[in-house]
Design a protein that fits this description.
Elements: H1 11-21, E1 26-30, H2 37-43, E2 51-55, H3 62-65, E3 67-72, E4 75-80, H4 82-88, E5 96-100, H5 107-116, E6 125-126, E7 133-134, E8 141-146, H6 156-160, E9 164-167, H7 173-176, H8 181-191, H9 201-212, H10 217-225, H11 227-240
Parallel strand pairs: 1-8, 1-9, 2-5, 5-8
Antiparallel strand pairs: 3-4, 6-7
Helix pairs in contact: 8-11, 9-10, 10-11
């Protein structure tokens, strides 16, 4: 994303980069799916230790967050979870954890996340075997993403850990560069549309890929967007041309 000057970006992306550049280490990105929220969290302003991703669901377990004991060659070893990996980074500097779809986390997972996403001074985790206490290293940061309409839909304790919440209401220009120019304006309009008119940017990627491989327009539109929206997509493309 660095190929764009910040001043040339849509306001929502300017706000995100402003917050990260100012050292804000807890940010929520929310809004329509398929706009590049996760990609931005994983890549922009990430230090040398990189980023670690958690995708929440009802089936997700606490072990994916903090870790668990696993048998290995006749003994049990502690396998760290992604949040703990981000905490520890390279041992000196922490990394970033990106928590996707946080609103879908179960109660147990949410409880574990509340510890990992708390302030650096307040967070700790005790390793049950050697008794070592893990704490986040300096530089640890967290970005949460969600498709909710408003951050107040999140649990109060979780929302309170993130001082900055930004609604991402348009795709980042770099995410659109994959598409040919004739598709870009249509994609922006439908990715940010309300209700049943909304289409994911990922669907446009698939649509374009099929067209590039010789699939006819009607079939590609039906497969990528579904029967109900195929006609609307064709009409939008005709207007754009």
């Amino acid at each position: 994303m660095s190929s764009y000057e910040q001043k040339d970006l849509p306001q929502c992306w300017q706000d995100y980069f402003t917050a990260i550049n100012a050292g804000i280490d807890r940010v929520i990105l929310y809004g329509a799916p398929g706009t590049g929220k996760t990609y931005a969290g994983l890549t922009y302003g990430v230090g040398e230790c990189g980023s670690f991703r958690l995708t929440c669901s009802e089936e997700m377990t606490v072990s994916q967050v903090s870790g668990m004991w696993r048998p290995h060659r006749g003994e049990f070893l502690f396998q760290k979870g992604e949040a703990l990996n981000a905490w520890l980074g390279n041992g000196q500097v922490g990394g970033r954890v990106v928590v996707d779809e946080v609103d879908k986390a179960s109660g147990d997972v949410l409880g574990e996340l509340l510890n990992f996403l708390d302030s650096t001074a307040s967070s700790s985790l005790r390793d049950p075997d050697p008794g070592e206490v893990y704490r986040p290293k300096a530089g640890f940061s967290a970005v949460m993403t969600s498709n909710i309409e408003h951050p107040d839909e999140l649990p109060v304790a979780l929302r309170d850990r993130f001082p900055v919440a930004i609604k991402i209401d348009t795709p980042h220009p770099q995410a659109l560069e994959v598409l040919p120019p004739r598709l870009r304006s249509v994609a922006v309009g439908l990715v940010t549309a309300e209700g049943n008119r909304r289409a994911s940017l990922r669907a446009f990627y698939a649509f374009n890929q099929m067209l590039s491989n010789g699939v006819d327009n009607d079939t590609a539109s039906r497969l990528a967007f579904g029967e109900k929206r195929a006609k609307a997509i064709a009409e939008a493309l005709a207007i754009a041309e």
